[in-house]
């Protein structure tokens, strides 16, 4: 891998690594000269998956050095069909050459801490993969301009490990969707303090989207006699709710024509209650403050949120001509939620003792 990032895009690229460090401990990098560079991370609970994909147009240079050994990193086929041997041997050889420099690797985000820290006067950032003593390293080379006419070069060499990568397990088919600016979604979530999870309550008839802090004591079982400790702790938790009318969103489309089945709540055509991890969501939405201010994209950024019902993954995604970003979150299964009250100021009798299946699997 041999890529060069221009000065106006360095901050956005480094911020993506900083965002992923708030999701998981490792980042999975996949590179191809034609497809660009993808950065992915998965948290320990497998309840949050984030991906940033930078297209070749994002870089000043996006190529693979011809001197790079084939063994550096795991080679990846473009598709399952390319693994089948073609009758035309010339075509098969051309496909092998095309995939020769595709690879993926895993990098500890702790090792990248020195790379993602803020820097001033960065002229460019070059990232290359090199093999030293049969070990693969990524070289992050910063060119920093200093007055009067001095250029400093700072290089970080980070060891990487061979890995297949991770991918999200989610579907946007037949999903409801809302579109809003990252700032709007952050305004919903920022007031929620001292909580690891948040709950979106989306009401179709009232045309209202509310966000509420969610605690383990918000379960019906916490009122049982053997949960006296939880009952005592409940009095110390701060409960906060924010709300917004759907008219304030850019787009809103709620699926209200589903045929009720055994695997979905009976209120599925009226509202949705989605309990999801808060830390990773805040980190993802906060990234766009940096991305917008870095001027690497002249396009306005909007986040699309796809959702079904509790227990189905919630997906946040944005895309421009030069990059795309995606966050997939597991949500609390609707069967673990208690009776839903009509009071929009709180979520009553919700059970936080379980979570949907993981949103991502290692390949």
- Quote the average pLDDT: 81
> Biggest sheet, in brief?
11 strands, antiparallel
Rg over C-alpha atoms, rounded to the nearest angstrom: 23 Å
CATH class of the largest domain: Alpha Beta
Net shape:
elongated
What share of the residues does DSSP label as strand, in percent? 35-45%
What's the architecture of the largest domain in CATH terms? Answer: Roll
According to CATH, the fold-level topology of the largest domain is: DNA Polymerase III, Chain A, domain 2
Termini separation comes to 22 Å
Number of helices: 6
Say which CATH homologous superfamily of the largest domain is assigned: DNA Polymerase III, subunit A, domain 2
Oligomerization state of this entry? single chain
The helical percent reads: 10-25%
How many distinct beta strands?
Answer: 22
- By secondary-structure content and strand pairing, the structural class works out as alpha+beta
Q: Which residue ranges are poorly predicted, with pLDDT under 50 across at least 5 consecutive positions?
A: 76-96, 339-357
Q: Number of domains in the coordinates?
A: 2
Order of helices and strands: EHEEEEEHEHEEEEEEHEEHEEEHEEEE
